[in-house]
Amino acid sequence: MIPANDNRPTGFDAALVAYLPMLRRKARIITRDRQKADDLLQESMIAMLRRAGTCRMETFRTWAQLVMESVASGMRKRERRQMRNAPEVSIDAMVGDDVAPLENRCAQLRVQPEQFVRADLAEVVDRLQRIPNGNIVLRRAAGELLSDIGDENGTSKENVRQKEERARAVLVARLQRRAA
């Protein structure tokens, strides 16, 4: 039998095919979603084939699981980044042509924020960027979970919650000091 790639260790392809059902099961456990599990499995297989030169056949199973965990972490980070950088859509664009003109105008009037509200929001965001752990408050406001932030920072959910609480307290104190 002629190997498909000279860089792969002997028996790598056979071990990968034999371990595929366990990798599929692990992908389902990690993602808890069938579609995401399939995506994770495919990306993991590609990563394993690219990194085949770093694999020792004695520790193949552990190596394969570590590669899958690494790919899963990258996928989670990519999802969070996409969620954070999602384009802002005006409510005007969401109101279709099938809406009566009067209702359309009412929808436009209801969503336009007043100028001082915009200024206050800009000030709060600016202050949060200068407060220790203020980014956690911003990320939580964007809808990120405590566990996701904790996984990224290497801390527990409770630790992240406490940091968020302290940052909010500092923000409130600074805003009250400014108002006084």
Q: What does it look like?
A:
The chain is mainly α and 180 residues long. The protein has two domains: 12-84, Rna Polymerase Sigma Factor, Chain: A (Orthogonal Bundle); 100-179. Helix content is 73%, strand content 0%. The protein has helices spanning 12-31, 34-50, 60-84, 91-94, 101-111, 115-130, 134-141, 146-153, 157-179. Helix 1 (12-31) packs across helix 3 (60-84). The model is unreliable at 93-111 (pLDDT under 50).
Labels describing this entry:
mainly alpha, Rna Polymerase Sigma Factor, Chain: A, 180 residues, 9 helices, single chain, 2 domains
Please render the helix and strand layout as text:
Layout: H1 12-31, H2 34-50, H3 60-84, H4 91-94, H5 101-111, H6 115-130, H7 134-141, H8 146-153, H9 157-179
- Mean of pLDDT: 79
Tally of structural domains: 2
Q: Which structural category do the helix and sheet elements fall into?
A: mainly alpha
Q: List the uncertain runs.
A: 93-111
How do the helices and strands follow one another from N- to C-terminus? HHHHHHHHH
| Rg, Å, rounded | 24 Å
First-residue to last-residue Cα separation: 81 Å
Number of strands: 0
Helix amount: over 70%
Strand content: under 5%
Q: Sheet bearing the most strands, described?
A: none
In terms of quaternary structure, the protein is single chain
Q: What's the tally of helices?
A: 9
Shape: elongated
What does this entry show, briefly?
Helix content is about 75%, strand content about 0%.
